[in-house]
């Protein structure tokens, strides 16, 4: 039989080229790269440690809404854990594309520059 794992689903969604949406994606990318760096430096691969280190910084410095800030450090932990398991790991991982990890059941809309 072999090992049974979890199936994950990734859905690609095109974002309308509204300036607010693109700006949010850019802030998320910058915040994610910062979170990856902090998680590696502090060896904070648990949610509680990462939350204490990153939550307020992601909200205040990068201007992320609270749920997106949580998704950001959760994604950073996943990226760091997978990087640490790689025996031939190279440089610290960096996110270059505009993307966002959204929690299941949450939707995000931007209307007149305000996150709904």
Structure report:
The chain has one domain. The termini are far apart. It has 3 helices and 2 strands; from the N terminus they run αααββ. The chain is mostly helical. Helix 1 (19-42) crosses helix 2 (47-60), helix 1 crosses helix 3 (66-85) and helix 2 packs across helix 3. Strands 1-2 form a two-stranded antiparallel ribbon.
Biggest pleated sheet: 2 strands, antiparallel
Helix and strand sequence: HHHEE
Give helix % range: 40-55%
Number of helices: 3
Structural class: mainly alpha
Number of strands: 2
State the end-to-end distance: 46 Å
Q: How would you write the strand order of the largest sheet?
A: 1-2
How many domains, in number, for the residues? 1
Gyration radius over CA: 15 Å
Quick structural gist:
The protein has 3 helices and 2 strands.
Keywords:
mainly alpha, 3% strand, 3 helices, 116 residues, globular, 2 strands
């Amino acid at each position: 039989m072999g090992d049974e794992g979890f199936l994950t689903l990734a859905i690609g969604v095109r974002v309308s080229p509204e300036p607010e949406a693109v700006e949010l994606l850019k802030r998320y990318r910058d915040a994610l790269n910062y979170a990856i760096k902090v998680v590696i430096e502090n060896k904070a691969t648990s949610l509680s440690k990462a939350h204490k280190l990153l939550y307020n910084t992601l909200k205040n410095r990068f201007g992320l809404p609270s749920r997106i800030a949580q998704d950001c450090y959760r994604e950073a932990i996943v990226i760091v854990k997978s990087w640490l398991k790689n025996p031939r790991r190279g440089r610290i991982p960096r996110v270059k594309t505009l993307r966002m990890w959204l929690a299941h059941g949450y939707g995000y809309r931007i209307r007149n520059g305000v996150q709904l």
